[in-house]
Amino acid sequence: MIELPDSLAAWTQARLTELETKLAFAEDLLETLNQTVVRQQARIDLLQEQLRLLHRQLQDVRPDESRTPRDEIPPHY
What we know:
Oligomer: single chain
Radius of gyration: 32 Å
Helix content: over 70%
Number of strands: 0
Distance between the termini: 105 Å
Structural class: mainly alpha
């Protein structure tokens, strides 16, 4: 096996340590971003369900979509 000079071995070890550190931070950031996306998707799902419920309620209140307030004749006429 070839032995590296001390300065090259030290540089290689320092570089390896630096890369491992960067990888650890990148993995942590990736996990944090993943958790954020999961929370946002849950929020989006909840908002979509609320929108569906509101749409149904609107349909119940106003079932005939073809009618508008202009079509309504005020009671005093």
